[in-house]
């Protein structure tokens, strides 16, 4: 018996159309931020402060960025305008990353099928 490889997934034409549509949508978001948005409650150094009894200060919001092993940059987002922009920038970055990942998936499949992926 001869094993035949079944055709799986969308046709090459469908993949190419998806790629064209995707490329028309992908734009570098001007506000993109590769970061995380983190909230923290903190204790201060003062004795007899309410935070020493469990009522911590905050929440404080931070933008956190990782640059490889042990290299973390973090800063306090002081205003609500900063926090809003940070959340929007992070969301824009994630959406952009998902689009790039989808493009990579399509290109991988086209390459596997012996198709041209440039141009
Ligand atoms: Zn305190």
Key attributes of the depicted protein:
single chain; 119 residues; alpha+beta; elongated
Quaternary state of the chains: single chain
* SSE run: HEEEH
Give a count of the beta strands, DSSP E runs of length 2 or more. Answer: 3
Class by helix and strand content?
alpha+beta
| Spans where pLDDT lies below 50 across 5 or more residues | none
Strand order of the largest sheet: 1-2-3
Small molecules held by this entry: zinc ion
Estimate the mean pLDDT confidence: 93
What is the helix tally? 2
State which percent range the strand residues make up: 15-25%
**Could you give the distance between the termini?**
41 Å
Q: Judging from the principal axes of the Cα atoms, what is the shape? A: elongated
For the sheet with most strands, the description reads:
3 strands, antiparallel
Helix content: 25-40%
Rg, Å, rounded: 23 Å
Short description:
The protein has 119 residues and is α+β, with helices and mostly antiparallel strands. 39% of the residues lie in helices and 18% in strands. Strand 2 and strand 3 form a beta hairpin.
């Amino acid at each position: 018996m001869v094993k035949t490889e079944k055709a799986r997934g969308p046709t090459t034409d469908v993949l190419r159309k998806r790629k064209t549509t995707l490329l028309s949508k992908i734009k570098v978001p001007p506000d993109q931020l590769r970061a995380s948005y983190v909230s923290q409650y903190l204790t201060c150094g003062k004795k007899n402060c309410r935070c020493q009894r469990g009522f911590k200060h905050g929440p404080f919001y931070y933008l956190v960025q990782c640059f490889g092993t042990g290299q973390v940059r973090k800063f306090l987002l002081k205003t609500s305008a900063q926090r809003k922009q940070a959340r929007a920038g992070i969301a824009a970055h994630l959406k952009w990353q998902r689009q790039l990942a989808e493009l990579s998936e399509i290109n991988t499949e086209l390459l596997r099928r012996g198709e041209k992926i440039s141009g």
